[in-house]
Amino acid sequence: MPILLGSIADDYTGASDLANTLTKNGLATVQTIGIPDPSLALPDVDAVVVSLKIRSVAADEAVDAATKAEEWLRGRGAGHVLYKICSTFDCTDQGNIGPVTEALCQAAGGATVLVTPAFPETGRTVYLGHLFVAGQPLNESPLKDHPLNPMHDANLVRVMARQSRGAVGLIDLATVTAGPSAVKARLDALRAAGVSAAIADAIFERDLETLGEVALQTPVSTGASGLGLGLARALARSGRASSAGAGTTDAMRPVGGLAAIVAGSCSAATLRQLDIAEQSMPVLRLDPEKLLAGSDEIAAAISWAGERISTGPVVVAASASPEVVSRLQARHGREASGHAIESATATIASELVARGVRRLVVAGGETSGAAVDRLAIPAFLIGPEIAPGVPVLRTIGNPQGDMLLALKSGNFGGDDFFTAALAMMR
Ligand SMILES: Nc1ncnc2c1ncn2[C@@H]1O[C@H](COP(=O)(O)OP(=O)(O)OP(=O)(O)O)[C@@H](O)[C@H]1O
Ligand SMILES: O=C(O)[C@@H](O)C(=O)CO
Questions:
Q1: Is CATH 3.40.980.20 the right assignment for the domain spanning 253-424?
Q2: Where is the Four-carbon acid sugar kinase N-terminal domain (predicted)?
Q3: What is the pLDDT of residues 373-412, one digit of tens each?
Q4: Residues ≥6 apart with Cβ < 8 Å to 18
Q5: Which of 78, 173, 298, 357 counts the most CB atoms within 10 A of its CB?
Q6: In whole angstroms, what is the distance from residue 206 CA to residue 257 CA?
Q7: 18 Cα nearest atom in ligand 2
Q8: Ligand nearest, relative to CA of residue 123
Q9: Above 60 in pLDDT, residue 82?
Q10: 294-349 pLDDT tens trace
Q11: What ligand is nearest to the CA atom of residue 119?
């Protein structure tokens, strides 16, 4: 069956967030890790989300991977491809939102690309091109302290222009409120003026429904789960979607086995969730300096977890406050420390799976990417939602056998997320 909607996600947690939104809004969806091997049996679905790990790599590498994924999705019938970015517009002045958006648009024959990270359900809104995170301008939100891509400008037209070759325009709220025809007319006018991408305002889900309907008439869009909601609802309204939420029942079958949580996210939400988890389960706080010094800290963590895990879930966390992260980065460099810690947490996750863990929660996009890659999991069915943006995932074709995972975006989930997740993963 040809797919209706294709998506390329720039990280794995973002991919599961989008897959959750598409499922909830009527599209049977599967999440793949990269372009799947032709031998992998995937269920018949309306939408495929190809997860890539390209948010923080060099722009040319990101463009190359995304272009190949676009080609694969078009080959499976996708009429529209959504480039799934973070709802907090995580990027640097070098990319990768601008370069990838322009490359995907070019591959699809042009047209001005509609871009919006709005995701009202998690407090991300865009007004006059400015992104607000839970009511705070992006540059005043906790994203100003992100370990890999600190965000210092809330004006997305400016942020996107700094990393794009073409001009970047705005579709303001007044136009969005006027409905799909007004948005389409504005997009056409921007195209005639040679503008390659347009940041669209959106405050409420109804704005995203308008934007989704218009985006569907174009080959490519760029956005977060909010735009996914708009696209999914437009497809469902058109009567073309097969069946709402297919896969969820299968995804809920219990897997048993041991349970663990591995955290590498340093977001304010994850730090709060770790403090709360400490009240009900053993939590090991890794020493980042020791992690960078060699493998002893990893071995000690595995042995600590091994002694406790048969009696209940354990948490292993590299996560630290912005001050601790800054000190480490000042000594070892931002990328080097990030990568070394991702590699360490991936090793810990895979060693825990080797010791019988079958229910695994990972906090942080880059951290999840490294762990899922290390486990060589090829794809996921989408299960029930734990918190907005975070579903239970069930592995497809996993060399370790069936597992349930939750890949938590750094800023998502309530304070009790970890216990809530494990309660739903049986
Ligand atoms: N103590 C620490 N000091 C410095 N860097 C750290 C530390 N702990 C984790 N890191 C690194 O910080 C980065 C966190 O990024 P990650 O994407 O995993 O989380 P996040 O940004 O909160 O999540 P998301 O991308 O889903 O919003 C990773 O590269 C991780 O290795
Ligand atoms: O859009 C979001 O905020 C998340 O899905 C994400 O991409 C965080 O990594």
A1: yes
A2: 5-229
A3: 999 999 999 999 999 999 999 999 999 999 999 999 999 9
A4: 7, 9, 49, 82, 84, 224, 225, 228
A5: 357
A6: 42
A7: 5
A8: 2
A9: yes
A10: 889 999 999 999 999 999 999 999 999 999 999 999 999 999 999 999 999 999 99
A11: 2
73 CA distance to ligand 1 centroid (A)? 30
CATH 3.40.50.10840 positions along the chain are 5-243
For residue 17, the CA-to-ligand 1 centroid distance in Å is: 18
- DSSP assigned state of 254: -
Tokens linked to 297: 């800290």
For 100-146, write each residue's pLDDT tens digit.
999 999 999 989 999 999 999 999 999 999 999 999 999 999 999 99
If we measure between CA atoms, which residue out of 152, 200, 150 comes closest to residue 178? Answer: 200
- Tokens representing 223? 């956005």
- 328 within ligand 1 shell (Cβ under 6 A): yes
**In the structure encoding, which two tokens stand for residue 402, read together?**
């069936």
End-to-end Cα separation, the chain, in angstroms? 32
Looking at all shown ligands, the one closest to residue 89's CA atom is: 2
User: Which fold, 5-243?
Assistant: Rossmann fold (3.40.50)
d(CA 416, CA 311): 21
Which ligand 2 atom is nearest residue 17's CA? 5
Sheet with 130-133, strands from edge to edge, namely: 124-127, 130-133, 136-137
Tell how far the Cα of 189 is from the centroid of ligand 2, in angstroms.
31
Ligand in nearest proximity to the CA of 274: 1
Q: CATH 3.40.980.20: which residues of the chain?
A: 253-424
Average pLDDT, the chain: 96
337 lines ligand 1 (CB under 6 A): yes
Ligand 2 mutation target, pool 131, 266, 366, 412, most atoms within 8 A of CB: 412
Q: CB–CB of 215/118 below 8 Å? A: no
The answer to whether 145 touches 322, Cβ cutoff 8 Å, is yes
